[in-house]
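Reviewer comment 2.1 asked that we show a complete input and output for one of the modelled complexes. We chose the TZD case, as it is the one discussed in the main text.
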Amino acid sequence: MSAIAQSIDANVDEADATHGLTDGFHLFIDALKLNGINTIYGVPGIPITDLGRLAQTEGMRVLSFRHEQHAGNAAAIAGFLTQKPGICLTVSAPGFLNGLTALANATTNCFPMILVSGSSEREIVDLQQGDYEEMDQLAIARPLCKAAFRVLHAQDIGIGVARAIRAACSGRPGGVYLDLPAKLFALTMDAEEGAKSLIRVIDPAPRQIPAAESVARALNVLRGAKRPLIILGKGAAYAQADANIHALIEKTGIPYLPMSMAKGLLPDTHPQSAGAARSMVLKEADVVMLIGARLNWLLSHGKGKSWGRPGTQKFIQIDIEPREMDSNIEIAAPVVGDIGSCVAALLQGIGGDWQAPPAEWTGAIREKVEGNVAKMAPKLMKNTAPMDFHGALGALRTIVKERPDAIFVNEGANTLDFARSIIDMYQPRKRLDVGTWGIMGIGMGFAVGAAVETGKPVLAVVGDSAFGFSGMEVETICRYNLPICVVVFNNNGIYRGTDVNLSGGPDVASTVFVKDARYEKMMEAFGGVGVYATTPDELRRAVNEAMDSGKPTLVNAVIDENAGTESGRIGNLNPQSVVSKK
Ligand code: ADP
Ligand code: TZD
Ligand code: MG
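Response of the prediction step:
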């Protein structure tokens, strides 16, 4: 027999032997697909390279990144945008650890995602005998996410995936770790039995209807208010109850304050928005209703000098997590349930004869908002070189207004704080940023995830330091030809570029970078468009062109290195040395 005939024969034998069988690879892929999950973000390597290949073969979209943290961030923001857990796939130990920051950040921000990592031989790992990429990943992941599972048998893959999906999506959403040991992928079982072992998760985030008395209590508190305020958080954006939230705000006539990722639930230009009167309303409101927003550091824990005198303000809180109530201060009216159901119940309870808040209150807020907006206006028109934050953001603000369905990704310190207050958003879930932790490095991962999931153009405005954390992913952006325009606000450093080394030694200060770095060349290196912009006009032109063409673009926006302040608007959180002489 010829060698070729022999090898054909061998293949036929193999096909015979595997006929009617499935394996761990295919069961996992089929389990995801059965649950409507069709995209994987990850970095390949042992033992999951073939999993990625086979997933692609089976029609899934498999997007490879240059570092797992950014794949994880893409998965996390996919979860936020779609309410389906985003999947991040990594190799064992180091790849797993690289993905873990994104998993922990997703959990902190209440975004549903699943980190799936291959792992080494259990028997060797548990005896600490030094396997390839040895690590007890399950134990390490567990305290950093909502739930962590490991699957050891092929017939349990369906259940493992189902448990991961339920844990990520139900109740307060969050990150889940799923550990898949290398051996699992090659395990086989009868294909029919395998198909039967898979689970389609019915209703992964069941509605949680609030108790009628909790709704009545909340409405009573709200009715008694003379200076009511509603605070919308990113939970309200996540819930996709946009029409009812809109109706609740407008029917009650209550002024509202959007947290940063809730901007655009109603347009920031809405007459009831108190965004530009934040300090005033936090201090003066007598009843505050929180919808999907925690009273954490971002709201000064509901007490202290940002707020009114203790005991003079009452809080209503709508949240799916009962333990969130009273976490920082007393909640007079807790309403526990999913935001869609809670807001619907409130709307029903309000009926047709709700009394609008006193005009004295709404008028005073309006006056403050208009005053602040007018004060800001001339600063946004500045057309100087180098640009300051206002001049540069003035140009971008118009672009976002003209393209309300584009997604705006934002990270940095000054770059974040100025953009948050200057760039108005017009549609829900269009602003994606550093979230609860103020984490640098979400930029390119969020941009890729948002572009892939929504198909909309993305404008990512990032500080030069922030960009550095995920900058290599511009190759990923070019590789998949995504409609992403990155604008790097380049002020030569962290917060600003003018710090000096107080020792007088030869190293530059620890916050300072290479002066006038040409970040745009990074995009050019991979075939994208790079632009060096020194004035708001140049910036406007470049970004408009990028948004029109959809070509991967990086605009290096030169910002005055004196323009920023330490830590942006949260400099007060820096501890001060009492002994060092300044
Ligand atoms: P922000 O940073 O915008 O203030 P947070 O992340 O602090 O928002 O708060 C989001 C809150 O929303 C969390 O307490 C979370 O439990 C809650 N949440 C998320 N999704 C839902 C939902 N579908 N229904 C009710 N509450 C939700
Ligand atoms: N590392 C991580 C993961 N997250 C962080 N938030 C930080 C470090 C500390 N940090 C900030 O809080 S903002 C920031 C760092 C390093 C960068 C600020 O510089 P920038 O923005 O260039 O991005 P501006 O516009 O110059 O202020
Ligand atoms: Mg900077």
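DSSP finds 23 helices and 19 strands in the chain. We note this here for comparison with the apo prediction described in Section 3.2.
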